[in-house]
Description:
2 copies of one chain form a homodimer. Chain A is mainly alpha-helical. In chain A, 58% of the residues lie in helices and 3% in strands. Chain A has helices at residues 3-9, 14-22, 41-55, 60-70, 78-110, 122-129; strands spanning 30-31, 37-38. A two-stranded antiparallel ribbon of chain A has the order 1-2. Chains A and B meet through helix 3, helix 4, helix 5 and helix 6 of A and helix 3, helix 4, helix 5 and helix 6 of B. Chain B binds a DNA duplex through residues 2-4, 13-16, 18-19, 23, 34-37, 54, 59-60, 141, 143.
Amino acid sequence: MKIGELAQLARCTVETVRYYEKAGLLAMPERNAANYRHYGAGHVERLRFIRNCRALDMTHEEIRALLGLMDTPAAACGEVNQLLDAHIGHVDARIQELTELRVQLTDVRRQCQSEQSVAACGILQGLVQMDAGEKNGRHTHLG
Amino acid sequence: MKIGELAQLARCTVETVRYYEKAGLLAMPERNAANYRHYGAGHVERLRFIRNCRALDMTHEEIRALLGLMDTPAAACGEVNQLLDAHIGHVDARIQELTELRVQLTDVRRQCQSEQSVAACGILQGLVQMDAGEKNGRHTHLG
DNA sequence: TGCACACCCTGAAGTGACTACAGGGTCAAG
DNA sequence: CTTGACCCTGTAGTCACTTCAGGGTGTGCA
């Protein structure tokens, strides 16, 4: 099949497919006489795998590691488990961060319930005075 | 004060301060004879405001809008409220997305509890077969 | 036969919010 | 008079794409 059909099967754009090829996630396919890429069932499976990992917010590095493990089928899957556990840790950490953020945001928001002038608005006062603390490093790759 | 002191007061790097200046978030300060930037109390307040907004994961666009509103102090603060409510909405949406993600991840993870070969590992099978659905557009600017 | 139109190709540049680096200038202390 | 901490500009790199410019290919229809 051509790249458009592959992209449709994996629910992504053709640009993304070409990008994955350049990024080394998807193997370079054969070309026909017109230099068009020509894909088979293996490519569909691989691309679906990649898109599923991305839907789970894994980085290309994490995905590359999983793909590498898949290509040594005799290896033990302990590393796969570790990788997934680490990723679940990232997601948990980000949920925790965002939950704390939400508390801070509603704190700030509470400071203005009425329509008044910007000059007196408690929200802006709050945003000037708030102390963000030093703990705001990003601890996961999830934004 | 010079840029290093300003950065320290706002808990960011001097590169970030210069970046905010180029991005139009922070006004260009005066320069001394040696072409060093020279800041005052107003800059500290403004930069703290920006850093606090960033700690709440607002985009530069959102911050620019808030700064614009601050600079017209007679205006009603209804727009400020709207902006903050919208941002709280983004955070809520992202927490929701990540929570669903976590469920999917633990579903996948559950498929391999034992040490076996990669070829038989249920996790990789799951990642190949999983159907991510079409609803995976990012709906917020939070990653 | 001519042509419109959907699809394919490459390579470069843009996104957001920085970070890092190269290659220089300034200034106070020892 | 030199060391080291600080400052300057400008460019490129990060991540996972998206968009664009400028072309080539292939099919259906008048």
